[in-house]
Automatic annotation (TrEMBL):
<dbReference type="InterPro" id="IPR001455">
    <property type="entry name" value="TusA-like"/>
</dbReference>
<comment type="similarity">
    <text>Belongs to the sulfur carrier protein TusA family.</text>
</comment>
<dbReference type="Pfam" id="PF01206">
    <property type="entry name" value="TusA"/>
</dbReference>
<protein>
    <recommendedName>
        <fullName>UPF0033 domain-containing protein</fullName>
    </recommendedName>
</protein>
<feature type="domain" description="UPF0033">
    <location>
        <begin position="7"/>
        <end position="31"/>
    </location>
</feature>
<dbReference type="InterPro" id="IPR036868">
    <property type="entry name" value="TusA-like_sf"/>
</dbReference>
C-alpha cells in the first residue's frame, strides 16, 4: 500500500488523535493515504466513524501489542 503521510498519535488521549488526523488529512490531496499510529483504544471507533462521516475511506486497521494502526484514504 502506498502511504503518503504518517501521523504519530501515540500517547494521545481522545479527542487528540482525531484532531491531529483531521489536520493531517487537510494537507493531503484526494486519493492520498494517511497512516495513523495510535495507542488510545477509543481511536478504533472514533477514527472509523470520523472517516465515514467525512467522506473518507478507512482502508484497514490492525493492532499489534497495543499499537493501533489505521490507513485512511482521502475522499
Amino acid at each position: 500500500m502506498n502511504v503518503d503521510k504518517v501521523l504519530d498519535a501515540k500517547g494521545l488521549a481522545c479527542p487528540m488523535p482525531i484532531v491531529k488526523t483531521k489536520k493531517a488529512m487537510n494537507e493531503l490531496e484526494s486519493g492520498q493515504v494517511l497512516e495513523i499510529h495510535a495507542t488510545d483504544k477509543g481511536a478504533k471507533n472514533d477514527l472509523a466513524a470520523w472517516a465515514k462521516s467525512g467522506g473518507n475511506e478507512l482502508i484497514k486497521h490492525e493492532e499489534d501489542n497495543g499499537l493501533l494502526k489505521f490507513w485512511i484514504k482521502k475522499g
